[in-house]
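Incident review: delayed structure delivery

Summary: a single-chain prediction request sat in the queue longer than the usual turnaround. Root cause was a stuck worker, restarted by the on-call engineer. No data loss occurred. The affected request and its eventual output are reproduced below so the record is complete for anyone auditing the incident later.

Affected input:
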Amino acid sequence: MKNINLKNLLSVLVLFCLLATTLSSCKSSSVVPPTTTETTTTTNVTTVIRDTVFEIQKDSSYYKAYVECINGKPVINQKEKVESKKGAYLQPPKVNLKDNILTVDCTAEAQKLFAQWKDVYIKENKSTIEKVPYPVPAEFSWWEKTQIILGRIFIGIAVLLGLGFAFKNRN
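Output delivered after worker restart:
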């Protein structure tokens, strides 16, 4: 039996480790998961409070009637009786009797009405995201392609040198 050289045994183990690591690869799953689509809806509700003033211009009314003198007393010719009540903005009537003509003036002050309301704005945003199970990066650059080719050449040379060295020392 030949004497086993420790150097030869060590080189064969290193060659075996190099071959085992370079020839093994990652295994992908046998079933590719489907592409999923995720839709997200966001709703923005904006409430704006607005107010305004409605101004009502002052208004007036005028009443004119003929007054007759019956038995020495003045009497209104019309049978309707006009009454006015003092309101929140209506001034008491001003009545004048001049030359047998009765004049009644009623004026109202200008009013301001305040109003307030809410405007509600609803904005919906829908976004769709397509999730690819395995994202693919961009194409390789020329430098990355060069590294891959040089790596394959180096592995080929290393395998040939290892086999040559193993067969040379075998005899």
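Verification: Residues 142-170 form the longest helix (29 residues).
Action items: add queue-age alerting; document worker restart procedure.
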